[in-house]
Design a protein that fits this description.
The structure holds two protein chains of two kinds.
Chain A lengths: L1 H6 L23 E8 L6 H10 L12 E10 L2 E10 L9 H5 L4 E7 L3 H5 L1 H11 L5 E6 L13 H6 L3 E3 L8 H17 L2 H13 L1
Parallel strand pairs in A: 1-3, 1-4, 4-5, 5-6
Antiparallel strand pairs in A: 2-3
Chain B lengths: L5 H19 L6 H17 L3 H15 L2 E3 L21 H6 L10 H11 L6 H8 L9 H23 L3 H5 L2 H14 L15 H16 L9 H12 L2 H15 L8 H17 L1 H9 L9 H5 L8 H12 L7 H12 L1 H6 L4 H10 L6 H16 L6 H6 L44 H4 L3 E5 L9 E6 L1
Antiparallel strand pairs in B: 1-3, 2-3
Helix pairs in contact in B: 1-2, 1-3, 2-3, 5-16, 7-10, 7-12, 9-10, 10-11, 10-12, 11-12, 13-14, 13-17, 17-20
The chains are: A alpha/beta, B mainly alpha.
């Protein structure tokens, strides 16, 4: 599994290598990590990012085509970190572009919408695609729009439990748990980057289970 | 120097034959081939083209005769990029000059040229866009248009009624429609809400946007609704201020843009590849840089291509850009040159900062609202003119930009009748050897045999590194 992951050669839909180099350290000596946000269209991926990055919330966000990249610098445990958040387009139509943005990802946040069941159902598809490209990166699950549907916070969900994915009840509108979600994701991304093998154990466990 | 002496001509002709004999034997060279070689070698004298370049050109001709097609040609020689000046927008009195007494639009080519050069005054858009977007034929009279519009109104409301008359209960068992409608609703809510026209809760124009897109689902159910389409409709509705007119103009726009939204995304992928090829050809430094940085896939152009720069400009600029593109001048693929021009404009920043794929992507995202639309159009036209006057124009570029290769440019592919290849006189110096095993077009398996040969030319700076022939 480990070997496969290291030698994994990702090619984009045009058959070209989609090579993005997240060097060990940036020129400024920071650790660079890449965090990917996935989920159906309009579940609030961009809004969550915006809430986290500028602590602001614009109710009418534009839809994301293909992908948008947010670069953010933060300090985690006294270490300077450069984080690229890759915000992706949710509509199925644009999925052929995905290979390039999974590449070298260090962590992933799967988002669904508490007010739309279908967006939860589709998590399985997203997860499968993610694991196809990144078999072992840490993964997080976020239930967004809990401000609209409060009961959802009392519910437990089968999907994250099954795959042992931590779940966060969040609201981009009022900010609940947003900082926690992203900080945890970035920390996990750093751990993964420093020691990818830890996560291989998890993935092996997973494989045994299924 | 292979000067203008008769000796020079003879020599190069002989060289061609000898080199050919070495590289292509055992194939037969016909009288016609020699004629081409002769003509090319006279070019050598008149235009001071290196004999080896000519040889490669001849190989192109020869390969064609054998059923090969030249896909990569010699290094293109680009003239300096001309600086282009944009014109003032078409005015209302000017527009009226184009109309005859019955209201037909006359001198359409001239009109399009005029719109290409300067766009039009905002007040004209409501009327003129209906022609540009094919809602009305240019040669229709005002009376005919009134009739046509009545039909279009009926047709629109017929389709609108189709989805309006489906009850909630029906819809609960009609997921194909339900899903499509849900996509529209999600997107309408986040389309240009900062533009005054679409601002605020319960905005009527927003409702109209939704109704038009939902009716479009009935017009083209197979395509349905795809993200991006609301962006294409929004400026049109803003101009038309009328549901029916906006719908039919949108239909016209979608006739152009539809392939962008197809499930397999093949049009976009093709366009990304074409844009890459154009960058490589028109700005080799940048092309090489992008390749080196793993950015040859050009993904950062995706949004530009998908919705024709809609997210890169403020509303009035988008309108200007689109009306220019709708003229289809100087080529329907002009938008590809816009991509190239936009990247060339940022070339210094990208290269000096050593941007990799991620940084380029981020930079391109951040170019939104910072591009001068008139400058971009002028740069792209400059690129077009440069290509138009280029020597050794690769056939692929000519194809992408819909250019005819004129006689003064290189004709890599000699257009000759391939009626007779064998059994003719041999040229001086060439033996009457065996005939090449692959005769053109006599077996269907030829087309399936997709082998290719590469001729490496290391002889001259003016020669590209690789000449690739694809077997037809």
């Amino acid at each position: 599994m480990a070997a496969q992951q290291n030698n994994e050669e990702i090619r984009d839909s045009l058959g070209e290598k989609a090579e993005l180099d997240y060097d060990e350290k940036t020129k400024a000596g920071e650790l660079a990590v890449k965090v990917i946000c996935l989920g159906d269209s309009a579940v609030g991926k961009s809004k969550l990012l915006e809430r986290f990055l500028v602590d602001g919330y614009k109710p009418q966000q534009l839809s994301t085509y293909a992908l948008t990249l947010y670069r953010h610098r933060m300090t985690i445990s006294d270490e300077s970190v450069l984080v690229d958040f890759w915000d992706t387009a949710g509509q199925e139509r644009f999925q052929s572009m995905h290979a390039s943005y999974y590449h070298q990802g260090h962590a992933c946040i799967l988002v669904f919408d508490a007010t739309r069941k279908i967006t939860y159902k589709n998590l399985t598809t997203w997860y499968k695609e993610l694991r196809h490209h990144r078999p072992s990166i840490p993964c997080f699950c976020a239930v967004n729009k809990i401000d609209v549907n409060e009961e959802v916070t009392q519910r437990s969900f089968n999907f994250p439990a099954k795959y042992d994915i931590p779940i966060y009840y969040v609201s981009a509108a009022n900010g609940t748990n947003v900082v926690k979600l992203f900080t945890d994701a970035v920390e996990a991304a750093i751990r993964y980057k420093k020691n990818p093998s830890d996560f291989n154990d998890i993935i092996l466990e997973e494989l045994e289970r299924t | 120097d292979h000067g203008a002496s008769p000796h020079g001509r003879n020599r190069s002709e002989k060289e061609v034959a000898e080199l050919l004999q070495r590289s292509l034997s055992p194939v037969r060279i016909t009288h016609e081939d020699v004629e081409v070689a002769g003509r090319l070698s006279s070019l050598c004298v008149e235009d001071y083209i290196h004999p080896v370049v000519l040889l490669l050109r001849f190989l192109g001709h020869y390969a064609k005769n054998l059923g090969y097609e030249v896909v990569e040609s010699l290094n293109m020689r680009l003239p300096p990029r001309p600086s282009v000046s944009r014109g003032p927008p078409l005015t209302s009195p000017e527009w009226k000059e184009f109309l005859d007494l019955e209201g037909r639009v006359t001198r359409v080519a001239e009109l399009k040229q005029r719109i290409f050069r300067g766009g039009m005054e905002p007040g004209l858009r409501k009327e003129a866009w209906k022609f540009l977007l094919g809602m009305y034929p240019y040669d229709s009279t005002e009376e005919e248009r009134e009739e046509l519009r009545k039909k279009k109104v009926d047709d629109y409301y017929r389709m609108k009624l189709q989805w309006r008359s489906i009850s909630a209960e029906q819809e609960s068992r009609f997921s194909a429609l339900r899903d499509r409608k849900a996509l529209v609703e999600k997107d309408v809510e986040r389309t240009d809400r900062t533009v005054h026209f679409y601002e605020g809760k319960g905005n009527d124009n927003l409702l109209m946007l939704k109704d038009i897109l939902t009716t479009y689902i009935m017009w083209n159910f197979d395509l349905g609704y795809v993200q991006g389409m609301s962006d294409l409709l929004s400026p049109i509705l803003f101009i038309m201020e009328n549901e029916v007119d906006a719908f039919w103009c949108f239909v016209g726009f979608m006739d152009i843009m539809g392939p962008n939204f197809a499930m397999d995304q093949s049009k976009i992928k093709e366009d990304l590849e074409k844009a890459h090829f154009l960058v490589e050809s028109l700005d080799p430094d940048l092309g090489e840089y992008l390749e080196k940085m793993g950015s040859g896939n050009m993904y950062f152009c995706f949004r530009w291509l998908l919705i024709w720069f809609k997210r890169e400009f403020e509303f009035p600029d988008v309108q200007r850009l689109w009306e220019v593109l709708w003229t289809g001048l100087p080529t329907p693929n002009f938008y590809l040159l816009l991509c190239v021009a936009a990247l060339c404009m940022e070339k210094a920043i990208i290269m000096e900062n050593q941007f990799g794929f991620t940084e380029i992507l981020k930079h391109v995202n951040e170019m939104s609202y910072r591009i001068d639309v008139e400058k971009l159009l002028a740069e792209a036209e400059g690129l077009y003119l440069q290509v138009q006057n280029a020597q050794n124009l690769p056939s692929r570029i000519a194809e992408i930009l819909g250019l005819e290769i004129s006689p003064h440019q290189l004709q890599m592919v000699h257009q000759s009748n391939k009626t007779e290849v064998n059994g003719q006189k041999s040229p001086p110096g060439a033996p009457a050897g065996a005939i090449g095993s692959s005769e053109p077009g006599n077996t269907s398996t030829d087309t399936e045999a997709m082998d290719s040969i590469e001729v490496l030319g290391e002889c001259d700076d003016a020669i590209s590194h690789v000449l690739a022939f694809n077997f037809l």
